Amino acid sequence: MAQRVRSLAREFGFQRCGITDIELGQDEAHLRDWLAKGLYGSMDWMARHGELRARPGDLHPGTVRVISVGLDYGRDSDEAWATLDDSERAYVARYALGRDYHKLMRQRLQRLADRIAEEVGPFGHRVFVDSAPVLERALARNAGLGWIGKHTCLIDKDGGSFFFIGEIYVDLPFPIDTPASAHCGTCRKCIDICPTQAIIAPYRLDARRCIAYLTIEHEGSIPEDLRAPIGNRIFGCDDCQLICPWNKFAKRTDEADFRARNDLDKATLVQLFAWSEEEFLQRTEGTAIRRSGHERWLRNIAVALGNARGSADVVAQVIAALESRRESASPMVREHIEWALRQHQAG
């Protein structure tokens, strides 16, 4: 039946599937230390549900195994680097360019669970896709999907790291898979390339410095010393994954749902800064970007506009875009606009 589960997972579009038990003792200790150092920033829910993340049996009583799956979303890395090198354009993390993965994966996982029930009868289970306190990367590693790299992302030797993870907690005592072994070796490219030096040690991320945290999770003002390193990244950051040698030769599946919408892989900062709140909500419907809200969207783009460089005509357009929102923006966004204008005055 475990073999059947893996076969069914691939039928439902998952490129990876493995099964593990619920023992996460070492990972719980690592998490506890990370929380104790306050490296989670303002993500209070991380501390609030800390121990529960490492105890699947407490989160969903009766759980004895976890079915872990992976779904590709990766794109051409050369295209991503080209966007990062063009300060007029906006960089959006590759996972957020298309449809929000949460609903898509949850539907597929539930269908997988339903099919398993058809073959074995009713069983206790619960589906998770980044929707509850779950140590999903540790579980995926133990299920053989990949190892946790020094940048804290999961890496599959054949598929790289550009894939989503989801789980089904089950009360069925399936045989378990062999955990993935690590293959980072002495490489530290992900650590060295991080624009804000958020990877403070191998396998240790300071979320407070991470561009993904600053542009997505963080609700207030972005610290001034971190604004310039953000560059043109307006929603998330992929540098540590793009530089990873395992992604260079990865074979990934092109999932149509995750292809870029609204030309977000080509749009300029000036174009996106002009979106009204109504337009923002309409264009980001069904995507992960919408959760950041229009105010943070403008805040992030204001920072990127402050970092934009180019010809005199380009800079003039950037300044005009900033000035156009100077008076109507919220106090938080206005503060970032003023900073951006000062960068161009200084330049």
From TrEMBL:
Its EC number is 1.17.99.6. Keywords: 4Fe-4S, Cobalamin, Cobalt, Cytoplasm, Iron, Iron-sulfur, Metal-binding, Oxidoreductase, Queuosine biosynthesis, tRNA processing. InterPro entries: 4Fe4S_Fe-S-bd, 4Fe4S_Fe_S_CS, QueG, QueG_DUF1730. It catalyses: epoxyqueuosine(34) in tRNA + AH2 = queuosine(34) in tRNA + A + H2O. The keyword Metal-binding applies. Residues 172-204 form the 4Fe-4S ferredoxin-type domain. This is Epoxyqueuosine reductase. It comes from Lysobacter arenosi. The gene is queG.
